[in-house]
């Protein structure tokens, strides 16, 4: 059931994107916890003269996947870095206009990154690039990164819808 807040903030589509972005960020958190676990095992193993081959490789791939997984959530929740000192005295309408502009930039960069990262995935796969120690295909990390970027574009689209309404003098933030 759609709540009044969901209707005011962009409808069922944006509510679904918000929920998906939250779940995807939790996935990113789990990946990051696994990276921490790998590093803990590596450090503890080093103390006892044992090694964990490929810990750097898994850390690189895991942190990249996790960082991209957080981007859509930051967009839909308004948790991106902002310079509030410039907007502290601005009206809600002007803040919405700046947020709209930021969402437009996020959308454009998301589309550009999807385009280039997709070609990167194709290249990584075609040339069969793997990590040096574990021989994990590097293109594996590109798949969740591309999913994150697609979700970022959807999140930016929701922000554009919501803030565009406020910037034009429509519904205020709820």
From TrEMBL:
It is found in: Cell inner membrane; Cell membrane. GO terms for cellular component: plasma membrane. GO terms for molecular function: transmembrane transporter activity. Residues 41-162 form the Tripartite ATP-independent periplasmic transporters DctQ component domain. The keyword Ribonucleoprotein does not apply. Keywords: Cell inner membrane, Cell membrane, Membrane, Transmembrane, Transmembrane helix, Transport. Pfam families: DctQ (PF04290). Coiled coil: none annotated. It is a multi-pass membrane protein. InterPro entries: DctQ. The keyword Ligase does not apply. The chain crosses the membrane at residues 21-49, 61-82, 94-118, 138-161. Belongs to the TRAP transporter small permease family. Part of the tripartite ATP-independent periplasmic (TRAP) transport system. The complex comprises the extracytoplasmic solute receptor protein and the two transmembrane proteins. This is TRAP transporter small permease protein. It comes from Roseovarius nubinhibens (strain ATCC BAA-591 / DSM 15170 / ISM).
């Amino acid at each position: 059931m759609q709540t009044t807040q969901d209707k005011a903030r962009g409808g069922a589509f944006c509510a679904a994107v918000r929920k998906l972005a939250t779940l995807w960020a939790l996935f990113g958190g789990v990946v990051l916890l696994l990276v921490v676990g790998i590093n803990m095992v590596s450090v503890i193993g080093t103390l006892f003269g044992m090694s964990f081959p490929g810990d750097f490789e898994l850390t690189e791939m895991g942190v990249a996947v996790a960082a991209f997984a957080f981007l859509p959530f930051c967009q839909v929740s308004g948790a991106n870095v902002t310079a509030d000192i410039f907007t502290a005295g601005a009206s809600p309408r002007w803040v919405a206009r700046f947020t709209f502009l930021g969402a437009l930039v996020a959308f454009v960069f998301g589309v550009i990154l999807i385009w280039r990262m997709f070609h990167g995935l194709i290249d990584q796969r075609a040339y069969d690039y793997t990590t040096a120690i574990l021989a994990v295909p590097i293109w594996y990390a590109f798949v969740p990164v591309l999913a994150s970027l697609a979700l970022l574009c959807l999140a930016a689209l929701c922000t554009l819808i919501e803030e565009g309404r406020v910037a034009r003098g429509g519904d205020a933030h709820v």
